[in-house]
Amino acid sequence: MIATVLLSIGIVFLAELGDKSQLMALTFALRYRWWVVLGGIATASAAVHLISVGVGYFLGSALPTTAIALVAALTFLAVGLWTLREHFGADEENPTPKSLRASAAPFFVVLSAFLLAELGDRTMFATAALATDYDWVGVWVGSTVGMVAADALAIGIGILVGKHLPERAIGIGSGLLFLYFGTVTLLSTVAPALSGAAVATLAALVPALAGGVLLIAARKRARRQSPIEATLPQPAPEAPR
After folding, report:
1. Which of 46, 42, 59, 57 shows the shortest CA–CA distance to 131?
2. What are the start-end ranges of the H helices in the chain?
3. pTM of the predicted model, to two decimals?
4. Considering only CA atoms, which of 147, 151, 118 is closest in space to residue 51?
5. Per-residue pLDDT tens for 184-226?
6. CA gap 130, 225 in Å, rounded
7. What band does 139 get if pLDDT is binned at 50, 70 and 90?
8. Residue 87's closest CA among 2, 79, 201?
């Protein structure tokens, strides 16, 4: 049992290093509190790996992986657009209220995003294969711990980075990253013949275009505010003593 748990931890931990789930964890950590992100990831990982060790091996070929990937892509794109809309027009003097962030139910956002991202992922099928030769409980526990440990590293990086960035920059950066994840997932699903480099290049154009639009809009907004500020009465200079 212990050997199975350790084996599963090692395999899943190594498989998750550099995977999209780590990038997602880092992005969520920039936006939400770390324990909320970790809790959502742990819950989603436990659910996905329970499916994989229980029935994933037998139904793996029958899972609607294309439909799941499309829903995941749309979810990432929606989260990205929602995040950019939330921070669009914000400034450093008037940042986004924390109450608005809390009302968005971040735990369920993280949970649903990781569930969709990991269903049909290679890690799911790897744990299903392990469960055919080893105790399924040990595989389930080990694979869940391995994924949570790998994503915890990314969360730690997100915490360190977030301490040195303003909230507006974090929000906009998170939105652009989710646009990238969504586009990568969408392209990989609808055009599987594309190479990884081509998918990454084409996907990078979407957040780049969105960032350019935001920059242009921000400059136009600044120009509209400048004439108004110029007409405001200026404080009288202090009389010399």
Report:
1. 57
2. 2-16, 20-31, 34-51, 57-59, 65-87, 98-103, 106-118, 122-133, 136-162, 167-190, 196-231
3. 0.66
4. 118
5. 888 888 888 888 888 888 988 988 888 788 778 778 877 776 6
6. 61
7. confident
8. 79
